[in-house]
Amino acid sequence: MNRNGWLTFTGICREYKIAYIGAIDDNRDESKITTKYVETAIASIVAKEEIKVNSTIAKGCVITYRK
């Protein structure tokens, strides 16, 4: 599965506010990942701690649609 360039994750906390939005991790190559943004954000939400990185830029193509 391609990551960080094809997928964006949005995490919502218990207060129904966006807690994290952005890339899943910091590298498309799984063997080169150094930061797992989503795992860290979810762990912070569960522990009721402040999320240190609450947004990142997810590089990749933009999908547009008509309303």
What layout of secondary structure does this protein have?
Blueprint (H helix, E strand, L loop, with lengths): L8 E4 L5 E5 L14 H10 L21
Antiparallel strand pairs: 1-2
Provide structural commentary.
The chain has 67 residues and is α+β, with helices and mostly antiparallel strands. It has one domain. 15% of the residues lie in helices and 13% in strands. The chain has one helix and two strands, in the order E-E-H. It has a two-stranded antiparallel ribbon with strand order 1-2. Strand 1 (9-12) and strand 2 form a beta hairpin. The longest helix has 10 residues, at 37-46. The radius of gyration is 13 Å and the shape is flat. The termini are far apart. The model is unreliable at 1-6 (pLDDT under 50).
Briefly summarize what is shown.
The chain is 15% helix and 13% strand.
How many independent structural domains?
Answer: 1
Strand order of the largest sheet: 1-2
Distance between the termini: 29 Å
Number of DSSP helical runs? 1
Helix content: 10-25%
Please state the average pLDDT score.
78
Attribute tags:
single chain, 67 residues, alpha+beta, two-stranded antiparallel sheet, disordered N terminus
